[in-house]
Amino acid sequence: MTIIILEIQIILTPLVSPLCAGVINKIKARLQNRKGASIFQPYRDLWKLLHKDEIISRDASWIFRIAPFIVFSITLLIGASIPLFTSFLTNTLTGDMLLIVYALAIGTFFLALGGLDIGSAFGGFGSSREMTLSALAEGGFIFSLLTIALINGTTNIFAIANADIFLHGKYLFPTLLAFGGFLVVLLAETARFPYDNPATHLELTMIHEAMILEYSGKKLALMEWASFNKLFIFLALWVNLFFPIGLAYTPGVITISMGIIIFMIKIFLGVLLIALLESSMAKFRFFRLPDLLLISFILNAIAIGLIR
Amino acid sequence: MNQIFLQFLLGIMFLTIVFLHLSKKNFSASIAYGIQSLVIVLFFLNSFFETNNLAILLVVFLMLIVKVILAPLFFIRLIKKNALAFSVSTYLNTPLTIISIAILTFIAHYQKFSPLTSIVPANQDSLSLALSAMFLSLFLIINRKGALSQILGVLSLENSIVAFVIFAGLEQNPALQIGIMFNIGIWILIATIFMSMILKHFGTLNVSSMNNLKG
What we know:
The structure holds two protein chains of two kinds. Chain A is mostly helical. Chain A has one domain (2-25, 38-306). Chain A has eleven helices and no strands. Chain A has helices at 2-31, 41-50, 62-81, 97-117, 121-152, 157-162, 172-189, 208-211, 217-242, 253-280, 289-306. Chain B contains eight helices and no strands. The model of chain B has no long low-confidence stretch (mean pLDDT 86). Chain B has one domain. Chain B has helices spanning 3-22, 26-51, 54-81, 94-108, 114-117, 124-143, 147-167, 174-202. The radius of gyration of chain B is 18 Å and the shape is globular. In chain B, α2 runs parallel beside α7 (147-167) and α3 runs parallel beside α8 (174-202).
């Protein structure tokens, strides 16, 4: 049974993550009175890209070639290392909060290196913007996880997901503050509004798309898939660490099935919120983004201050 | 109502004051004040359910009309009439404002204030939060250049004091509450008229630009 659960745990992230992007695009299209593409369109796009030939610049070094594999592998590793639908699994090797944060940072680092490697202007400014935002988001990210780590007295995220929600209401407000702070970081790290517009290739606004502009074919597919995985990972962390409701606490077909269903509902609610946010607000100017990330950091700092 | 739910409501109130500090639009600030007042109304509704005192129910209705409906409506009308969509800037920039918010919140949770926040030991956390809401409201009055934001600061300070009093178990006679409600109602009316006069006279609500006093 444990092997089956582990297998589901490993394949769930890459399997479901494109669907999240598809659902966000569909909801956004419906809110704009458009029919929109099918929610399975990201799967078709990935399939198409995986079967296309690649064009690689003659200036590209081994970093450019290897970056998509590293970025994609890291998202796979993290996807398998975080609580998705169960909390009874014990993962002391890769389940530490700081390991997750810095593994994601390695992914971002290689993504930025891949963008810089070609030497094109677009890749350069995309990487520069991405690293600026990542550096600013890192503090909020760590502090929001640190809040719940301090509340639960552990940095192991499976142990955090296994704990009582808000410890019987004693830490309701700090948890809510950290939850809000994490949402701000989630939007920054996954290149969504108001930080980045995933649907545009306008040079004034793009961040993530600028970095992967030189990629094509299979490598572009891996980069796109990794970004879907990253969105799914952040959503899973957000809904499972701050509101660990409905996770399977014991192995068993019914509890696991219920765990997966409730997890998918929570992810859908997160996806719905992102789609609503993206449909109701404009992208911020780049120089206003540090303020927003600072708000996240301070919210989390206040949350930590409120823990007695 | 459940104690956890009351704490949650107090958290919402605190966040509305943080939002008032960060908001760039007068309309959303007015709505935030309405939500903040609604939280106070819910606190009083909780008192009514606990005591079954009909006078408190009257306070709840008055509060709902004056603070949740009338006050935001007055402000929104003023905003629309005078095209005041965007609020005037602050003395401190956004990062410094946020850092000040954090410092004030920590100060309110500092041990030095424990004689004040441990009036009811079971509510110490909530009282500290209400105290930080009071500090933040005072800071809002000081930090904002716009007269409308300053008025919202005064009103949210009043809300914070009421929240503190409720969690400290120092609720006063409903007759006094009704009197306060009457005062606030009249004050909002006068403040709105006063703001219209300031706008007519100076052409702005920016208090730092009101140095050309004319007869």
